[in-house]
Design brief:
four-stranded antiparallel β-sheet, two-stranded parallel sheet, about 45% helix, 8 strands, 2 domains, alpha/beta
Length: about 375
C-alpha cells in the first residue's frame, strides 16, 4: 500500500516498506523542492526577545493580556515580574509559566505572531501524520481510460481526483516538485548507465517513463476540468447501479462527499506550518509526503521509494498540521480539534490501497 513509513528516530534501522522488497537504488540527488505555500498559519514562533517591534508597549500589553487568559484557563499562577523591564519581563514570565506545565500537558505554549497578533501566547497542538507517505497512484486510472467496461469507475475516480487536486490541493506528479524531480533523476541514471546485462530491464524502465509522462500530461488536463460536487454524486449513483460496483470504493467516495459537505473549500496547506523556513534541506514539506504519483506496482517503484526513504531520513523536521488556540481573549475551554486532517488522510490511505487492486504489472510487461 502507498502509505508506508518513511523516517525513524535517529540511529534506528529503516523497516522495509509495506509490501516491498529491498532495493539497490543509487543515492538520491538533492531533492527538487516543491512550490511551498502556507495557509492562514503563516506565523512565526520566534522567541519574543529576538524580534523587533515598532510599538513595544502594545506588544508588551498584548502578551500580558494573553498570559492572564492562559493562566485563567489552566489554573496556573500568573508570574509576578513587575520588577523587570521590557523585554526581560516577558522572557521571565514566559519561562515561569512554561515551568508550570505538567508531563500530562500535551500542548506547546508559544509566543506567536501573525497578521492579527504581535506578541500573543497560544497553545499549539500538532497532528501526528505518523511519518507515512500518502501517495495516490495514477496508473490504475490510466489503465481504465478508454476501456468501455471501465467507464463508470473511471468517471467516478476522475471526479475524486479533481476534488483532491483542485480543492484539497494534492500535488500532481508531472508538475515541478519532489516526485517529478525523482522521476527525472531516475531517467538521468538510466541514460547514463551502460550495463549490457541490464539493458532489457533498463529499456523497460525507460518505456515506463515515457508512458508515465504521456499519461500524466493527458490525465492532468482532464483533472484540471472544474470540479463539481453534483457531478461526483451523479457518478457515484451511476457506479452503484452497475453490476461490478465495488462496495469498498462506494464507501470511500461516500465518505469523501461527507467531507466535502463539512469542509467545502478546505485545503491541506491551510493548517500546515514549519518553523525554520530558511533550513530547507532539513524539512520534509507536506507536498513531499502527500502527492499523486505514477504507481507503486511498476518497475520504477522500488527505486522511487528507496530514493524517498534515503532522503527523508536525513531530514530533521516534518511539516505537519498545526492547530492554535490564541489567548488574546478569555477562553472557556481547550479548543484543539483535528477533524478534516485525519479524515482526509485516512481516505487517501484507503483510496490508494484500493487503486492498487486495479493496478498490476505482468512479468513480461
Amino acid at each position: 500500500m502507498e502509505t508506508a513509513s518513511i523516517i525513524r528516530q535517529p540511529r534506528r534501522a529503516v523497516r522495509p516498506l509495506a509490501g516491498r522488497k529491498g532495493s539497490t537504488a543509487k543515492p538520491a540527488k538533492k531533492r527538487t523542492a516543491g512550490a511551498h505555500g502556507n495557509g492562514f498559519l503563516n506565523h512565526s514562533f520566534n522567541p519574543f526577545w529576538g524580534v523587533a517591534f515598532s510599538d513595544w508597549r502594545s506588544a508588551e500589553r498584548e502578551f500580558f493580556v494573553s498570559l492572564e487568559n492562559l493562566c485563567g484557563l489552566y489554573g496556573w499562577t500568573r508570574p509576578d515580574v513587575s520588577g523587570l523591564s521590557f523585554p526581560d519581563n516577558i522572557a521571565e514570565a514566559y519561562k515561569r509559566v512554561k515551568a508550570q506545565q505538567t508531563p500530562e500537558f500535551d500542548l506547546e505554549v508559544k509566543i506567536c505572531q501573525d497578521g492579527e497578533h504581535t506578541c500573543c501566547l497560544a497553545t499549539v497542538k500538532v497532528f501526528n501524520t505518523d511519518y507515512h507517505l500518502y501517495y495516490i497512484p495514477v496508473r490504475p486510472l490510466w489503465k481504465m481510460r478508454g476501456v468501455a467496461t471501465e467507464t463508470l469507475p473511471y468517471n467516478l475516480l476522475m471526479a475524486v481526483f479533481r476534488y483532491l487536486y483542485q480543492v484539497s490541493g494534492v500535488p500532481f506528479f508531472t508538475e515541478p516538485g519532489t516526485i517529478d524531480g525523482n522521476y527525472d533523476t531516475i531517467k538521468n541514471w538510466l541514460d547514463e548507465e551502460q550495463d549490457e546485462e541490464e539493458e532489457p530491464y533498463r529499456e523497460r524502465q525507460k518505456n515506463e517513463l515515457k508512458v508515465l509522462e504521456l499519461a500524466g500530461n493527458t490525465l492532468l488536463t482532464e483533472i484540471k476540468e472544474p470540479f463539481n460536487l453534483k457531478e461526483l454524486k451523479k457518478d457515484l449513483a451511476s457506479y452503484q447501479r452497475s453490476a461490478k460496483a465495488d462496495a469498498c470504493l462506494v464507501e470511500v467516495v461516500y465518505e469523501i462527499i461527507k467531507l466535502i459537505k463539512d469542509y467545502p473549500k478546505r485545503a491541506i496547506k491551510e493548517t500546515m506550518h514549519y518553523e525554520d523556513e530558511d533550513d530547507d534541506n532539513q524539512t520534509i514539506y507536506w507536498e513531499q509526503y502527500i502527492s499523486f504519483y505514477w504507481s507503486g506496482e511498476d518497475c520504477l517503484s522500488e527505486t522511487l521509494y528507496q530514493m524517498v526513504n534515503d532522503e527523508f531520513q536525513e531530514m530533521g523536521y516534518q511539516e505537519e498540521p498545526v492547530n492554535n488556540q490564541w489567548f488574546d481573549t478569555p477562553q472557556e475551554k481547550p479548543g484543539h480539534v483535528f477533524d478534516y486532517e485525519p479524515r482526509l488522510l485516512s481516505l487517501i490511505d484507503r483510496l490508494a490501497e484500493m487503486l492498487n487492486d486495479y493496478d498490476y504489472e505482468e512479468p513480461n510487461e
